[in-house]
Amino acid sequence: MTDISSNNAHSVETLIDVLQTEDPSRIRAFLAKLPPGDEARALATLDKEQQARLIELLGPEKSVELLVKMTGRGVVSVIEQMPLQQAVDIFEEMPSRQQLDILRRLKGKDASRIIEALAPARAERLRELISYPEDTAGGLMIPEYLAFSRGMLVRDVLDDLRDYGEVYSDYAIQYAYVVSEGGELLGVLRLRDLLLAPKSKLLTDIMIKEPQKVRADTPLKDLKEFFKQVNYLGVPVVDTRERLVGVVLASAVREAVNRRSNQIFLQFSGIVGGEEFRTMPLFKRSSRRLSWLSINIVLNIVAASVIALYQDTLEKAIVLAVFLPIISDMSGCSGNQAVAVSIRELSLGLVRPKELLRVLGKESSIGIINGVVLGLLLGGVAFLWKGNPYLGLVVGVSLAANTLVAVSFGGLVPLFLRRAGADPALASGPLLTTITDVCGFFFVLSFASALLSRL
User: Fold this and answer.
1) What is the average pLDDT score of the chain?
2) Same-domain check for residues 400 and 448
3) What gap in Å lies between CA 190 and CA 175, rounded to an integer?
4) Which CATH number characterizes residue 328's domain?
5) What confidence score (pLDDT) does residue 301 get?
6) Domain presence at residue 89
């Protein structure tokens, strides 16, 4: 039997050794000794067979405790490889919020199989919840909440809480809600008021009337602004008929905002799908990266063709080769700043895809100022290095012109892509790189050709 000590508690090899004992109590003891977060990391490093065996030995309840500590795709990859019944057993033990996250990430066929294996009422409820777009109040809400009919007395509610306390203990309860016979939201009950009120009082006498609420189709950006303005832990969600359908928590909105920011960053970095973990299948990770890199090869060939057209000029003024990558890179950095601002404003709803002229005016102003400043700096360096003012002129003017193009284009391309239905975060980078390279090379070599005799 392997001795489990604090010195090797972090070791995956130790986990594998403990797993080979096939003793659930020893496995649980080992996992309990790991620092917070290391349990999920250890599970992610096991191969598929080892993961399946670990889940089987732990049982559904303990497995869920481990899986809820994993994030995103990591949980889905574990669920995907399970036999259907085992996946269903695990799934039924999970909080509803994580159930919905998993169903959205699973392939359509796998998600349907799990839903169909659930009780009909539960399956129908999940289908309804998953129909809401992910980054809306309906997609982020929790469906468990306390709602009582307006005709009930305080004593009725207290009796209900006492009788079903074990069930309600899993709810994220801060408030209770009063609804009409048709389910329309009428008011909010503070639990403190409920406990202190006379038992013979009607709920409608102690509830907060006309409570703040959000519609199920409220987008993430509006939810973010809502919770900035009010210091609530959560807010009730209603459908188009004002019926209470769930509660969206401020913490869920914060997590969604962070997740969206991370996805934009990964997409902008060329990770197709906006998410990648090293526990994913090797060829899947490779194909996601190659799908973006292969496009870049084509676009870079287009940019390189400009150099080929001016090959004679470059041969006669080889010093220009030193400045070509500088001009291209500096312009690209300026353009990426404009792209980032446009994507951010699009995600927050601060700019609309049709506001092209406004964005162009704002960005071109910055492009002119920054272009002149950067052009003077680089042109001055070229002049001091070679003592040739015409070289400094060619380099400086080229960088200034290319910066203006890059910033203007960088501000506009996300808007064009959004109007075309493409993902701005994924497609803006390659397009901007090609434009800045093509224009930068063209400006330098065409200006140099005009002043070739003086270089």
Assistant:
1) 82
2) yes
3) 5
4) 1.10.357.20
5) 80
6) yes
164: containing domain: 146-267
Mean pLDDT, rounded, for 428-454: 87
The C-alpha angle with vertex 351 and arms to 348 and 357, in degrees rounded to 5, equals 165
| Percent share of the chain, pLDDT over 70 | 86
pLDDT in tens, 323-337: 998 999 999 899 989
Decide if pLDDT at 7 tops 50. Answer: no
Domain shared by 346 and 378, yes or no = yes
CA distance readout (Å), 437 to 398, 420, 455: 12, 24, 22
- Listed residue (189, 145, 451) closest to 313, CA to CA: 451
- Return the ∠ at Cα 341 (arms to 338 and 343), rounded to 5°: 105
What are 225-281's pLDDT values in tens digits? 899 888 888 999 999 899 999 999 998 899 888 877 766 666 655 555 555 555 566
The reply to whether 242 and 353 lie within a common domain is: no
Tokens for 30? 């080992």
Rounded CA-CA distance 30/53 in Å is 16
The beta-strand segments (E) located in 192-277 are: 208-209, 214-215, 234-238, 244-249
